[in-house]
Amino acid sequence: MSDDLHEIETEARPWEAYDSTVAATGFFAMLRYLPRLCGQVLRLAWSTSRVDTAALIGLTAVAEALTGVGLLATNSVFEGLLIDGPSPERVRAALPGLTLLVVSVVIRGVLRQGAHWAQARLSPQLQRAVETRMLGLVTQVELVAFDDGTFHDRLHRCRQRAGGTVYSLLRIAVDLLGCVAGFAAIAGALTVLHPILLPLLVLAVIPSAWAAVRSARLYYQMVIGFSGANRRMETLGDLMTERSSAAEVRSYTMRPFLLGEWERLSRHVQAADLAIEKRRATAQAAGSALAAVGTAVIFAALGLLLYTGRMPLAAAGTAVIAIRAAINVLTQATQVINYGYENGLFYQDYLDLCAEAEQRRMRDGGVEPPADLDRISVRDVTFTYPGAEEPALNGVSLEIASGEIIALVGENGSGKTTLAKVIAGLYEPASGDVTYGGVSARLIDLDGLRGHTAVIAQNFTRWPFTARQNITIGRFDHPDAVGQFERAASASGAAEVFARLSKGAETLLDPSYKGGTELSGGQWQRIAVARGLFRDAPLLICDEPTASLDAKTEHAIFESIRRHAVQRTVVLITHRLASVRYADRIFVLDGGRVVEQGTHAELMALAGIYAQFYSLQASAYQEVSPL
Ligand SMILES: Nc1ncnc2c1ncn2[C@@H]1O[C@H](COP(=O)(O)OP(=O)(O)OP(=O)(O)O)[C@@H](O)[C@H]1O
Q1: Considering only CA atoms, which of 430, 324, 449 is closest in space to residue 374?
Q2: What does the pLDDT look like over 293-334, one tens digit per residue?
Q3: Which pLDDT band holds residue 623 (cuts at 50, 70, 90)?
Q4: Ligand 1, closest atom to CA 390?
Q5: Where are the domains of the chain?
Q6: According to the model, what pLDDT value does residue 12 have?
Q7: Residue 186, number of CB atoms within 10 A of its CB
Q8: Which of 279-288, 294-303, 547-556, 582-591 has the lowest mean pLDDT?
Q9: What is the protein's membrane topology class (predicted)?
Q10: Over the range 77-115, which residues count as b (16 or more CB within 10 Å of their CB) and which as e?
Q11: Which of 142, 382, 418, 456 best tests ligand 1's pocket when mutated (most atoms within 8 Å of CB)?
Q12: What is the phi-psi region of residue 280: left when phi exceeds 0, alpha when psi lies from -120 to 50, beta otherwise?
């Protein structure tokens, strides 16, 4: 068992590709990529809120540019203090510079706060814009995309990271802007003090920059190396804390195993983490030592300039402060670049997802379907799931007359659910066509078709809403919502479920929220049936609508469906063949093909697969009947 876990541990997370790219990319490649990226994010910010973006950029640029004013004011203070004369006179001479310095520091502080405020306003708007766009696009994507692992992985990744990424990128763009403005201001001030100082500064900063990049890269190596183990730990943590697994963790006495695995991985990660931290510390120490050498070179140069009288003492003092400030700015810039690049890759991932979602948008022909959908024809339909080797449907043809009840039966995996989804317009066939009153599914208005269809799905969703909302969902605008709700609830047996709930139909059906409750499998199924009936649609598709129901409710529901079927078309999928015998026609599927069709009597007379299944089920009941 443990070996299995080790195997899973080493599996790459889909986004590790991006982490690896970061680790493999050189510093200068990052430098080239970043301006484009910052431009993209700032454009997005601009389209989200012009005022906040302008305030953020303007205030940051001016605040950082004031660093230069502060340095020149410092120089003026030194000059005042170093003139010949008594102390009061020197202080007086330094006062204008000191005032300018104080004013520049105060203004810079205020501007920075203003920039923070603008950023605080802008970030959530940006995050919302990005997430809203993603959710808006993804909910319009064709259903089959959700069976495609690659799309699903990217979607999952973006769901986790897109909002946070754009938030980080905005900060990075602004930090970078601040670094550029701050460095330009310092460089300007240094050049005014003495032209040789700027090249010397660059020399001194190189070791610190190297140390920052090396340390960042080691950090990413650590992230890559242990993301498999971290993900595994996350999974184990979820298994130990989630409601869905809580019962089995206890009944299968899984606690020692899960805890043991979690601890083993945790120790493994911690040890390796420490080893990397040691290497980072070494790199940083080496960088600091080299930076100290670089600084010593600058100071030696400054001393030489002073000694030879080519630089006044005040300018040398200011230069020392400026050089320290510049080293800080450049060190910060290298870190921002590394961080920015990584986030940039995730942002690109989000842009790719949006592009793919646009491309896979459900196609919509726009032709209104007939009001009662009329005759539905399935013609030579083939459908293969993404990545599957065999088609799930292979040349299926059938006709469903308006108002008919047809049943699809067959072994597990024979293609019944897939065919029902094709008929409901949820999957587009690879070849062949489905027509509704002569209108091809490729030309039909999909919203119109959905409005005329109700699907009681095999794996229906247990919406974490109230019981009423669970039934009326998607059709809140029904003209007779109250009456229709009563009818659907009573026909499906859901009304009996409400009677036992503390707040009746208004009870929240999710125990993980305060005041919420859980239903049994059969009670949920009644709600799902009520949802289908409430839709009041001319085509009702029922995929195993009674799988979890007791015999009495099952019988009642089939009766309801038959009553409901008056002037409506019903496609019924069930393994309970006793309920199928009343269908107008029965289609038997096998390996994605229709192999038998006819009424119950015709199929029994045929003595094929259907007759065999039916006799098996009937004999099982006969065997138990003496009890
Ligand atoms: N999302 C999917 N991705 C890949 N293959 C799928 C997917 N869903 C179903 N299949 C495959 O398609 C075939 C038909 O599946 P389908 O669900 O239509 O069968 P079914 O007759 O409804 O089965 P059951 O009686 O068990 O509900 C099966 O071989 C199944 O493994």
Answers
A1: 449
A2: 887 888 888 888 888 988 888 888 888 888 878 878 877 887
A3: low
A4: 29
A5: 2-359, 363-452+540-550+569-627, 461-536
A6: 43
A7: 28
A8: 547-556
A9: Multi-pass membrane protein
A10: bbbbbeeeeeeeebeebbeebbebbeebeeebeebbebb
A11: 418
A12: alpha
Both structure tokens of 267: 């120790």
CATH 1.10.3470.10 fits 2-359, yes or no: no
Tell me how far the alpha carbon of residue 564 is from its chain's centroid: 40
Domain 363-452+540-550+569-627 matches domain 461-536 at the CATH topology level: yes
418 lines ligand 1 (CB under 6 A): yes
CA of 392 to the centre of ligand 1 (A): 7
In this structure, CATH architecture of domain 461-536: 3-Layer(aba) Sandwich (3.40)
What is the Cα–Cα distance from 589 to 160, expressed in whole angstroms?
Answer: 41
- Closest ligand 1 atom number to CA of residue 411: 25
CA 248 – CA 259 distance, rounded (Å): 15
481 touches 472 (CB < 8 A): yes
Tokens representing 143? 């259903």
Whether 410 lines ligand 1, by a CB cut-off of 6 Å, is: yes
Q: What are phi and psi of 378, to 5 degrees?
A: -105, 120
CATH superfamily to which 363-452+540-550+569-627 belongs: P-loop containing nucleotide triphosphate hydrolases (3.40.50.300)
Ligand 1 pocket: which of 417, 455, 543, 580 to mutate (most atoms within 8 A of CB): 417
ipTM: 0.97
Dihedral sign, Cα of residue 281, residue 283, residue 286, residue 290 = negative
- Per the listing, tokens 């390996």 go with 591
Q: Kindly report the protein residue whose alpha carbon is nearest to atom 31 of ligand 1.
A: 413
Neighbours of 525 (CB within 10 A): 25
Distance 114 CA to ligand 1 centre (A): 58
Separation of alpha carbons 182 and 68, rounded Å: 8
Token duo for residue 116: 């923070």
Ligand 1: which atom is nearest the Cα of residue 410?
A: 21
- How many other β-carbons are positioned within 10 Å of the β-carbon of residue 196? 17
Rounded Cα distance, 46 and 43, in Å: 5
